Amino acid sequence: MSDVHAVEKLWMGDGIEPYVKGPDRGTTDCASIQPNVVLFFSFMFFLQVRTQQYLITISPPFYSGLRLIFILFFLPRNGQISFLLILIFELAVYSSFVIFVNLTFT
After folding, report:
1. Is there a contact between 66 and 86 (Cβ–Cβ < 8 Å)?
2. Cβ burial, residue 83 (10 Å; 0-12/13-18/19+)
3. Which parts pass through the membrane (predicted)?
4. Which CATH number fits the domain that encloses residue 83?
5. 91: pLDDT confidence band, cut at 50, 70 and 90?
6. Would the CA dihedral through 80, 81, 86, 87 be positive or negative?
7. Domain limits for position 57
């Protein structure tokens, strides 16, 4: 079979078996699990409506794979200031390990 014919069959969907086996959960690398982007942006939109927020991003010179993201929330109703510290350890190009630390000051 020529390469052109094989590509045409692949394009038309001929001979493609459906993938039915799920991923092996026993060998899933925790660093490859990404947070749900839609959930994150929905949460950020909710906070944007309810609060005034400021975003500060710091990349320390001693370790280039670490990014610190400070999100400062100010609730105008009760004057409460909340810091959300997000530490992102970039382990690979497409994977990251995220730690959330929430500090609230009144």
Report:
1. no
2. middle
3. 54-75, 81-105
4. 3.10.450
5. very low
6. negative
7. 31-105
Residue 21 lies in a domain: no
pTM above 0.70, yes or no: no
**Does a structural domain hold residue 60?**
yes
75: which 2 tokens?
């609730």
**Token pair for 21:** 């086996």
Considering its fold, how many domains does the chain have in total?
Answer: 1
Tell me the C-alpha distance between 81 and 57, whole Å. 18
Q: Does the residue 76 lie in any domain?
A: yes
How far apart are the C-alpha atoms of 79 and 37, rounded to whole Å? 30
